Amino acid sequence: MKKIILSLTLVATMFSCNSIKNVNTSNISSAATLLSSLSSNSTVAQISQLFNLLDTNKDSAISTTEAIGSVAENFNVLDKDSNSSLNLTELTGLLGLLK
Fold first, then answer.
1. How confident is the model over 35-51, as a mean pLDDT?
2. Which residue in 50, 89, 68 sits closest to 78, CA to CA?
3. Is the pTM of this model over 0.70?
4. Is the C-alpha dihedral spanning 90, 52, 55, 8 positive or negative?
């Protein structure tokens, strides 16, 4: 229940941000829902789906402005090559943090 409330709060906050206004908010909402449902039993396919939802500009990377929730909170840990963006392999590291 706590994850759902946090996800809804995150989505509501994002709706109020000017930088998000041109982004497909249904993707952000779907990403928040998927992110809140991830657990240590989640699959790489679910992480891949999350990656596609978060990569709003479709440049095959998640920037700090595209990251939400635990992805944003752990961005520096996940960014193994320190290039200020996450590729799919780096985002898969989120599964290890869920254990």
1. 94
2. 89
3. yes
4. negative
What CA–CA distance (Å, rounded) separates 76 from 23?
24
Q: Do 92 and 36 meet the contact criterion of CB atoms below 8 Å apart?
A: no
Max Cα-Cα span within the chain: 35
Crossing angle of helices 25-37/44-54, nearest 10°?
150
Domains of the chain by range and CATH? 2-97 (1.10.238)
Phi, psi of 63 (to 5 degrees): -90, 175
The number of C-alpha atoms within 13 Å of 9 and in the hemisphere containing its C-beta is: 7
